[in-house]
């Protein structure tokens, strides 16, 4: 409720001309310049947080490049696919699993190994 009241007072101060405010007996108020600066400051804080603070925290909390956790997930368990021969299973999306780095390298570099052998 307090935020709503403050918002209404802010909008009234921002949009009501100075002459009308003086006629209502309100003479002590900040410059209208602040009506533009206050929202601008809030927007800058939001963009700065989203563009600088959050990526910096993400970078700071990431493990180092030599950490084994970047290569394999210790909680991945068994990566066996569950297969079913039903008609509907042909169109199902397979379960997401981690593949061992050695398996990925074996598949990715198989052509390179064949060329080196010849």
Write structural notes for this entry.
The structure is a single chain. The chain is mainly α and 118 residues long. The protein has 2 domains: 2-61, no CATH class; 68-117, no CATH class. The protein is 55% helix and 0% strand. It is elongated.
Question: How would you summarize what this structure contains?
Answer:
The chain contains five helices and no strands. With 118 residues, the protein is an all-alpha fold.
Write the layout of secondary structure elements.
Blueprint (H helix, E strand, L loop, with lengths): L1 H14 L2 H6 L9 H29 L39 H8 L1 H8 L1
Pick out its properties:
118 residues, mainly alpha, 2 domains, 5 helices
Q: Tally the helices: what do you get?
A: 5
* Molecular shape: elongated
Largest sheet: none
Order of helices and strands: HHHHH
Q: How many structural domains are formed by the residues?
A: 2
Beta strands, count: 0
Strand content: under 5%
Computed structural class: mainly alpha
Low-pLDDT ranges: none
Distance between the termini: 78 Å
Q: Percentage of helical residues? A: 55-70%
Transmembrane segments: 33-61
Pfam family, one: PIG-P
Subcellular location: Membrane
Domain PIG-P: 2-106
């Amino acid at each position: 409720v307090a935020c709503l009241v403050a918002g209404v007072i802010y909008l009234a101060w921002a949009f009501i001309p100075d002459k009308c405010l003086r006629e209502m007996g309100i003479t002590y108020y900040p410059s209208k310049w602040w009506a533009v600066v206050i929202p601008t400051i809030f927007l800058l804080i939001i963009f700065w947080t989203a563009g600088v603070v959050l990526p910096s925290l993400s970078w700071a909390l990431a493990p180092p490049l030599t950490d084994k956790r970047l290569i394999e997930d210790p909680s991945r368990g068994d990566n066996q696919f569950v297969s079913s021969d039903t008609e509907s299973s042909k169109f199902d999306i397979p379960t997401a699993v981690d593949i061992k780095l050695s398996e990925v390298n074996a598949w990715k570099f198989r052509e390179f190994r064949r060329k080196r052998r010849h």
